Amino acid sequence: MRTPGKAVLRLIYFFKFLEKKGGSGALVPFPPGTKGLFYYHLAPGSPPQAGEIRFKECDSVQQFSSGEDLQVDTGAPWTLPLFNIVNSTPRRGYLEEPLLAPGLVDQELVADLQRLVRDSRRCKRLLHYGIALYEIDQPFVTDLHVATFGARLITRQTIQTFADIAFWPTLTRHSLRIPGNRPPFYGRVRARFELMNTPQDEERPILHLRILGIIKPIEHRVVQDFMPELRAAELLMYREARDSDCIPWSYSPLMFGNNYKVLVEFLKCRAADEAKFAV
Length: 279
What we know:
Helices cover 17% and strands 28% of the residues. It is an alpha+beta fold and 279 residues long. Residues 171-177 have low confidence and may be disordered.
């Protein structure tokens, strides 16, 4: 894509992971006949670093409001996050004309993100690890057949890697181990974490997981009775023992482990950002 000022932005529709080919992937082209308008999107109440470019499918500017966002096959809108633009050298020239000049993004925010990129590269943090969360309760899309979940937690002060979160506790419990040590479901859902407490000194944060919607129909991989059917608008539930009642799945990282430090730091920095920038 080229702007009137000749800024060039190379766009990728989708990168598809090919599990059967040793973990490699392939670029998926934009659907034939794709037509519409790019626009800058920031969800109401979201911090400014969560901004992203989206594509509205429509025939003209006049039809923009009635158009629909272009989707990728994960069930989420196609996006190009602001952080990815800042992080990618070929895309940095695209900041000035379409984003900074009209005031969609301010220079102070860009400077903060550029500092994060430099610091992350210096510390060899994973800049492309998993999805990006700017709020702990931000909705995200995930496949159910994966054993663990990972994300980048991004504030204006820090970028952290939140890794190896197991949604399926039975994979580590010998009494309820399932055949093949596999997650119990196929499917894809839209979900979010819910923070159940406000961690104070010497207190571990507790997260629950709420299923917001079913994107790809859920199928059972194995016969099991320790996790009930997943339902939209309900918490992820499980049984601690075969004859016990279902309780909400929870994640509470071990004190002084990496995920504990990451989560506590993220919550503190996010609160500081909100106090300083009022969002």
